[in-house]
Every structure is written in structure tokens, then in C-alpha cells.
Amino acid sequence: MTQNQHALWRPSAARIAAARLSAFMTTVNARWHVACTDYHSLWRWSVAEPEAFWTSVWDECGVIGERGDAVLEDGQRMPGAHWFPQARLNYAANLLRGMAEQGDADALVFWGEDKVQRRLSRRQLHAQVSRFAQALQAAGVGRGDRVAGYLPNMPEALIAMLATTALGAIWSSASPDFGVQGVIDRFGQIEAKILLCVDGYWYNGKRVDCLAKNAEIAAQLPTLEHCIVVSYLDDSAATAAIRNGQRYADFIAPFTAAAIDFVPLPFAQPLFIMFSSGTTGVPKCIVHCHGGALLQHLKEHQLHGDVAPGDRIFYFTTCGWMMWNWLVSGLASQATLLLYDGSPFLAGASGKPGTILFDYADAERMTHFGTSAKFIDALAKTGLQPRQTHRLAPLRALFSTGSPLAPESFDYVYREIKADLQLASISGGTDILSCFALGSPILPVYRGELQCRGLGMAVDVYDDEGLALPAACGERGELVCTAPFPAMPVGFWNDPDGAKYHAAYFDRFPNIWCHGDFVELTAHEGMIIHGRSDAVLNPGGVRIGTAEIYRQVEQLPEVVESLVIGQDWQHDVRVVLFVKLREGMSLDDALAERIKQQVRQNTTPRHVPARVLQVADIPRTKSGKIVELAVRHVVHGRPVKNVEALANPEALEFFRDRLELQS
Does residue 426 sit within a domain? Predict the structure, then answer.
């Protein structure tokens, strides 16, 4: 890809001077007697001197806890390195710092579509966590026990997580749109002791009842001792049919707010159990720790996102996506959380679909807006112009993740949302609960590029032989990390010898984390992501990133969304493109040819699909990612091992036994 030298946005001198990252760099220079002058020199120092860097993050970002003298043991081993082995801290204590004394300032605001609005002050949040923690203790929950949330992104999910982790127990969550088997596949593996669920939720203006699913799930979790039902739709929701069921209000009723006795824990104490998407088998249970999650999120929020006390941060997410965990850590930077549950495409006050989140941004003085690339793409497709209809005055940053953000979507953001804005396309994943590449408030934004590699993250790009590819060479390769970092998983659940963990990331290149993304480094030391390397197309032995095709196809107004795979064909691979068209439209030869011409003219002949087929829907995970690998399995007649991981598994049928793919 030709590198674009024109920046879409540059931070002003005043904004650079005021950035938390600039203050951090000044302190680093004085403390460690170095001369970092810009972001990239700071990044190089951070990966060359990881012990000094992460010590500075601990101190300058204000971690509450005992750090100890040792920073890194076995630092040449990956996996096997140990960070801050003498430390004692508690994740929840850092998120709730000072809240009991901070009065009526908002800790969180919650919108459940346009049906429900709630807010909790900092004092109220502390009190609610205190009561729930006492209730958990009375129920026998202690260090290492598992508490599971099957909940919307609502206040009770945050309260329960903080209470759980304050006690040293382990939190895991899924969103209530998961099917019964998907929940069993997750929470059954970790042998949850407590399950929180909800009576129902709102989606696109409609009530969705969950009580029957809750009862079925509770009946199939043999280790479950309490099933606590949060009232969202109906305060009188019945729980009698649910094994060990009781209402949330009744569970905490015996307890009054008091000081919280946060359990001091080792840095590597398990905090969260996250789950892989599970589209190729039962989901892997990825264990993240108190110290790693806290330290990494403080760094990403304060240094990369410029989150400051009093900021009001939002991410459109569910409790089944790691961005929920990332969002709620914003409390540790003394920000207010803006939570939303429901459809992001709901019409707001203007009556235009897709405006409710911008109404929320104006009403609650949002400073940081997080969403998915697909949401931005969809807004662009509909021609929405928030810049014309909303003030968005406090908004300083827009974060995008979930899939590569197309260059045209960068243009849309600056043209139709806000011109003076840090647009940070960010990328990492559930595997690290954070980012490998993301934004910087002191760097320009270039079209189609992630601004930078993350501080303290020794990110590189390897070719097939394991050799590093230089920036701006025009070649793409595997995203790797060549040195340990604190947010690495402490392991997988039920993987005593670490074999599954090792196979997931370290088999390709020994002692090197191989992430599975197909990327290139740019002349600006930014990054372009071309898609997942396990979905990389390989016609004639030439590797092609799927994002390159999506970028072209989805510019056509007729195409709502697309999915591309490589089909094994006549001892080679041919590119097959599936398109979902606007309602009422049909794919004819003329449109198929226009699609091919769009790809041919803007990429290479090898990118051009051999077949273009229409489908009514495209399957995706619960967090909104399209599942190319699952479709590839269906097309080749192979089973998809865990359809419960999909938000719309019925969509797979549109790809099965297509006659057009048999010749």
C-alpha cells in the first residue's frame, strides 16, 4: 500500500503540552537520565528498558499497592516471565480509590436505550459494592472462587465485578444474547459458584425476556450455589423456577454499606477469565491477572488515550467483549463511565437511526467515544452527519476496534463527525485484554493507520522465515511481540502444563508471541492491519489480507457488508466474495462485474474474486466480528464446532451447499 504522507489531524502545540504523555516523558527523562524527545523515541526506550518503563507506569499512573523491589524475573522467557513478584495490590481497590469520600460526583451513567436512565455517584457506587461484597462473603465466596455475570452492560455488572475482585475471587462475564449452550460452554468450564443474570433487556425498542434461559442455564451448572437475578424489565420478576435463584435486591438486603476490606493480592493473582470466540471449538478460557490488567489499562487510558480525572468515557460494548473490561478500568484514572445497553442504531431525538449514541454524547458531555469499525462504516453508509446535528464540544477522542477501520471511514469521521479529534484505531484482543497498536495524543493521525505501537510492547512484523520486516518496506507479515509484557495471560484455565497456552501463541516462532494478525509498519511508524493471518487468502501462493478487499467492496452503495474466503479449488485457492446488499436489491451480472472492477482497479488482479455471491446475512461473533473461518469450514463441508459462539448462527445456512461453488 502506498503510504499517505498527509495527516488528517495533528494535535495543537497546546494539546501536546497538556497531554499526560508529555508529562510522563518529562518525568522519565529526569528520573532515568534519558533524552526522549518524541513518542517514537519514548517507545524505543520503553521496550529497551522494560523494568524502568513499567516501574514508571506504576508510579506515575498512581497504582495503589506495594510494588516491592523486583520488577521482572525470568525476563528472557516467554511464556515464563514474572512481573513484580513481590507486589501486593488489588484491582478493585484501585478502581474505587477515594470514592467513599468523593460525594455526589458521577461514578457512572447508564442508558438502557431510550427506556432507562440511571446514574450512581461515587459514594453510591462504593456503597453498592460494599453491600454486594458482604453478601458474597456471607455466601462463602473467597479468593479464587469464580463469579459469573450473564448480564447487560448495566450498573449491576460493574458492581458485582468490583465486589468479586475486591475479595480476590475471579470474575467472568457473557452478554445475555448468548444462547444457553454458549453460556454452558463458558461458565461450565470454570465451575462458577455464583451466577448473576437479568430478567430481560431492551433491544431495538423491544423487550427480550431471559428468565427461561436463566433457569435452563442454572440447571446445567452443577457447581452453582446461588443464581442472582437482577431486575431490569420488571421488579417483580419471579425466580422460583430458577435453581438456587433469588432476586438481587434480596441478596444484598441484609447488609449496609461499610468500609470495604480489599484483599491484598500478588501481581499475578487471577482477576478475569476471558473466552476466545469459540468458532473452531469450545472456547479457550484465558486468565488475566490483577496487576497486568490494571497496569496495562492505566497506561493505555492515561498515556495513549489522555484520560484525566473528571473525563467521561464511553465504549459501545457488551459484557461478552473485552472492551467492557477495558472500559470499566477507566475508574482507576478517576474518569466517569458512560454505560449503554441496547442497539447502537436506535433513533435518537432527531428520529434518525443511529443517532442515540450522539444524543448520549451531548447529554453527558462525553470526552472519549469508543465503538467498532463496523458501526462507523454503517454510519457512513447511511450518510449520517453528526457534526451537523450534535454539538460534541467536549469530545476529544474517538476509539475504533473490532476490525480494521477502512481509510474511507477515517475520512468520514473527520468530515462528518468532528474535525478536531484524535481518531485512534486500536488493535489487540481478548488474548492480552489490551492493545498491541493504538493511539497517541501527541502524534498525527494518518489515513488508514493505527498511530503507533503500544509503549512497553516490543511489537514487530515478521516474514514467514521469522525475519523482521522494516517499516515502509511495503511488505506485510505477522504481528509479533518479541519480549514479555505484564498483560500477558497468566495461562489458560484447565491447562496445567501450559500446552494449550503455548500452542496458541508460541508455536510459530519459539519464545515470540505470534498474534495472528497480518500487518505492515508504515513510514510514520504506525501500523496497517490487513486482517487475521489465519483468514489470509493465498491464491497462487500470494498472501492477500481480507481487509484490502472489504475496503473496496464496501465503498459501493449497494453493498451493506461483505465476507471473503479462500476456497480450495483445483489444487489452488480461489477468492470467493459474499455480499449482503441493501434491502430489496438483488445481485445481477452487472453489479457483480462492477464489484470485480472496483477490486481490480484499486488493488491487484489477484484480489479479484472468482465468484461473487449474494447472501441474506453474514455470521458474526457476539462482539460483532465476522467469522471468515467458520464460513470457510461450511463451504468446505467441515463442521463448525461451536455455533453457540455466534450471534446469528442461522446465517451459516446461506453459505452451505452453494451450487455456484461446485464449478
Answer: no
